[in-house]
């Protein structure tokens, strides 16, 4: 048993971490494709070796592999600012985040102690999020709630935005609070929160990011980041959010991720209350005191992982950890041209279920998955939830 | 069929109305006892004739029957100010109120047109209630909501209190709005709302009261009145209410009466929001727009009466309407002293179910009910919901 446990010792070697980084940064590889590639090729390095040929078969003339030099430079830059890359499955990886759909294979973490396992490895976490242009009452309530929940041993997660996010981080400083960044781990946004961020890092807080270092956040990076906020948290508390706000995106992720959604009500005459009030109408728990939060969350804290049935443990993401030699895995099948054409013909811009595609084309599951990877790496496949696929035609990109 | 329908023509004769008034105003007779008495004696007059002897058997030396003179004086005073007494079962009696537990047998109604059947006879009604010391935002929202619901054809019910109640009545003036009084129908409370009340009456509004004319409301009359507000309404909308407020009493009645409970949320930092927010936590519908109200209420409006299963139609309350001669009814049984003592001995200060009492004493149901009436009229019985009874001992009153 000792040996079996040890053979899955959850740390990547430096070589493996480099390969993981190159793979996730390569063209058309997202967290989901990363996982598919590891499932097929057994290790990030084997996947890297296969990438150019795969994408060529998918119809792409030249494929941009993320170079070893660039990956080494990124790692060096991270180390220089005291940040580390944590891989899915390593102890410091936020435990709840492992259970979301398509978790980032690598997270940059920045903290006073570069490993900071106690903090990012905790699962007694609550997100507090809300309006950037919050009211004074909203900020006051966020401060009260975050402070009291910290005292109760909760780690407060938020997005370092103005308004509610800042108030929550501030109030939770003493017990350590975690921010998820939409940009690179060295890119504090907004700039006015640099001082708050410094205080966070100085007081055992941390920041995480899945984006490359120095990445300047674009509008579409924020929803993507929001899935990390809810993903790291047992529950999400919403304080003031207008309709169609980013906070509501986070709440939607929380719903998908089967996390608790809690909302603080407000007057219907304040547009900043509409979002939270609507969530309550849709079934979110109404919060007007820390006791309300504790009543809802306490039964969840003692639940052992995995929190949710039906969310698969990503063990297949890291079979390589202690076996850089992949000879034990069966070699990936080589799809023939006829199968490939059948799959490409069957796909259209209308999303179709993978199971239907399987029945329609008659190819084997392993072959289908390989062909889909090829098309995806060529930038021609779009994946939709849950498990649906569509083709991106040249004219539509 | 014509005859059968006519024989239940739903109007009391003047003589009957006088007898009903004397009965409900007599000592130890409340709405529930009134109904029991009518069930036993077939008419209010027959019950009046039996009262002194019944209470004597229950152990009371002298019983105060409400005199004919006093009743005539009350009727005259009502007519003088343009008010009428409407009996349970008559067309102008608020239809939803018939279905509550222990509805008042007689309601004083005051309106521009003394009968005002269209208004008090409507069942497209909503109560809007809330804090007396409401915030400006609360009053504004009550005004908006009441105005919009009026436009949608709802009659707004409230309690003419300061704050939310006044705002709701004001905004609903044009379509007629109904106030329920805790005091007599001529006793406008608070005085500062005299002008609002005059406007209500002038614009097809109405007021109702079950209390004697000129009755000055005491603290304990307000909860009793609140059951009329919810009882007349399909649903109760709560806007701002502190904990332990009268509005929460009304909401509790609404729950017992199986009416919709709707609440407008507010900031947890405002104590006036705590009550409404708590109701939402307990399952009340969160309201932030008139559309939210319509979504909830529209399916209820078309429901035919009786709204609730298990609430018995009070037909037995008025078999006398067209048969002042009660010879067709079997004469009430005369309980013997042995049975009476058995029931008295079985009762204690601990409430007991009537069914258990029946089994324990072995007397017939009709005999038991008669004995209970006797004890009740003697002021020694307390009735608890649902259907439980206890003895009031001399030392405990």
TrEMBL record, chains A, B:
<dbReference type="InterPro" id="IPR057666">
    <property type="entry name" value="DrpA_SLOG"/>
</dbReference>
<dbReference type="Pfam" id="PF02481">
    <property type="entry name" value="DNA_processg_A"/>
</dbReference>
<protein>
    <submittedName>
        <fullName>DNA processing protein</fullName>
    </submittedName>
</protein>
<dbReference type="InterPro" id="IPR036388">
    <property type="entry name" value="WH-like_DNA-bd_sf"/>
</dbReference>
<dbReference type="InterPro" id="IPR003488">
    <property type="entry name" value="DprA"/>
</dbReference>
<dbReference type="InterPro" id="IPR041614">
    <property type="entry name" value="DprA_WH"/>
</dbReference>
<dbReference type="GO" id="GO:0009294">
    <property type="term" value="P:DNA-mediated transformation"/>
</dbReference>
<feature type="domain" description="DprA winged helix">
    <location>
        <begin position="330"/>
        <end position="384"/>
    </location>
</feature>
<feature type="domain" description="Smf/DprA SLOG">
    <location>
        <begin position="85"/>
        <end position="296"/>
    </location>
</feature>
<dbReference type="Pfam" id="PF21102">
    <property type="entry name" value="DprA_N"/>
</dbReference>
<dbReference type="Pfam" id="PF17782">
    <property type="entry name" value="WHD_DprA"/>
</dbReference>
<comment type="similarity">
    <text>Belongs to the DprA/Smf family.</text>
</comment>
